[in-house]
Amino acid sequence: MTTTTEQLEQLTDAAAAAPVWRAAHAAERAAWLRAAADALDANAEELVVIADEESRLGETRLRGEVGRTSGQLRLFAAVIEEGAYLEIIVDDAEPAATPPRPELRRSLTGVGPVAVSSASNFPFAFSVAGGDTASALAAGNPVIVKAHSGHPRLSARTAKIVIEALTAAGGPVGSLALIEVREAGNALVQHPVIQAAGFTGSLGGGRALFDLASGRPDPIPFYGELGSINPVVITQAALDARADSLAQGLVASFTLGVGQFCTKPGVVFIPSGSGFEALVAAGLAEVSGGRLLTDRITESFPTDVAHLEGEPTTAVVGVGRAAPDGAARSIVLSVDASAVAANPGVLLKEVFGPATLLVRYEGQDDLLRALEAVPGSLTATLHSEHADDASTLDEVLAVLERRAGRVLFDGWPTGVAVTWSQHHGGPWPATTSLHTSVGATAIRRFLRPIVFQDAPERLLPAHLRDDALASLPHRRNGALQLP
After folding, report:
1. Is 225 designated active site?
2. Are residues 132 and 185 in the same domain?
3. Identified catalytic residue from 225, 372, 385, 395
4. Is position 66 within any domain?
5. Which residue is catalytic, options 54, 65, 262, 350?
6. pLDDT score of 360
7. Residue 420, in any domain of the structure
8. What single DSSP character describes residue 477?
C-alpha cells in the first residue's frame, strides 16, 4: 500500500518530534506522560462507553483497564525521574593504562519513532495509550499507532484525547499519531522513519510483521507478543490438599474474559487417576459463555476447538452452560501426556477463547517428556505442597524456567501486575525477544546504547555531565554510585 499524504505528514511530524523527546529533561518528559494519564482518567466515562459498545467486555472490566493504562503512564514517568533506566557508566581517562584508556561515558538513548500495533483483547492497556506507547514515549520516542479494527472509534477518541493532552503540556507536534487499515500498518513497519515496532496479537499476523521489519534494507527491532499456552503443573500432593479450590481456580482463570487473556492457562498437567477432571467439569457446568471480542475470533474459536476434539487421543471432559446465540461455550478437554509428547504441534496449539486441555501424566518421567514439548509461553505455574520431594520439583521447575518468562507458585496466571519488577514475555512464540511488554523494564526495548569518548563537558548530553551524575544512579570506574 502506498503511503497516503496524511500518513506521510504524520511520519514527518514524528521524525521532527524525535529529537525534542530525546533531548527533553526528565522532569519535562515525565510531566507530559502524567498529563496524558490525567486526561485519560478525566475522560474515562466517555471512553468506557465507547469501548463497551465495540469490545463486549463490560463496563466494570473496562473501567479497571483505564486505571491500569493511566497507571502505566505514571509508572513510566517515575522510571524517567529515577534515572536508572539510562544505564549510565563512566570510565575516567587513564593515560598510564596499557593500552591508554580514554574517558568514556555511556548511556541509553531513544531509538527514534516507534510503530505500535494495538491488541484486540485490551482496548486500553495494549492499545493507543497502552504499555508499548507509554514505554516508547518514556524512552524519548514519538509513536505512531496502528488502530485495531475491533475498536476503531475508541482508538480515534483515545488518540485525540492523548494528543491534545501532550500538546497542552508542551509536547511537540508529532508525539503521537494514529493510522488505520492493516495494509497501512504493514507499510508503517517498513517505512524508513520507523526505528522499532511493538505488537500484540496473533502468531500469524505478528510473524508477518516481524518478517517485514527484518527484511527492510535497514532492519529494525520488532517486539511482538504472539501466542502463549501458559502451562500449569499440579502435583498429587496439591490435589490431596486442595483439589476443590484448584478446580474452582482453574475454571475461573481460563474462562476469565471469555478466555481471551494472553495469560490464560491453556494446558494443565495433572496426575492420572486423580479425579480432577470430574471436579473441573462440575465447576464448569455452572459457568455461562460470553461473546468474543471480534467476528474473526468468534469464527476461529469453534474451529480451533473442533480440531482438538477431532484428535483421536482427546476427550471432552465438560462444557459450560449453553451459550446464547453468538456467544462462546466454555469447554475442557483431556489427553494423556504421552500423546502430547508425540504430537505437540496439534495438541499444544493455542486456542484463543474459553478452552483448556487437561494432560494426564503417569509419573515424573511422563510429565517431563510432555513438558519438554511445550512451546515458549508468557507464564508457567506450579501447584505443589511442602510434602512434595524438593528434587522432583526442581526438575519440573528447570523445564518451566526454560519455557516461560514468569513462573508462578500456587496461583493463576490471568492477572499481570504493572510494577517495576514485572516481566511479560517469554521464549518464542510467546515473544520475539527476551524483553518484556509490561513493567518498568519494558522501556529497554526502545533504547540503544551510545558512548561519548573524550567529549568536552559542554557537548555532552545533560545527564552525562558531572553535575547531573550526582543525582543519578550510575557506575564510575566500575563502582556503583547512588545519589
Report:
1. yes
2. yes
3. 225
4. yes
5. 262
6. 98
7. no
8. T
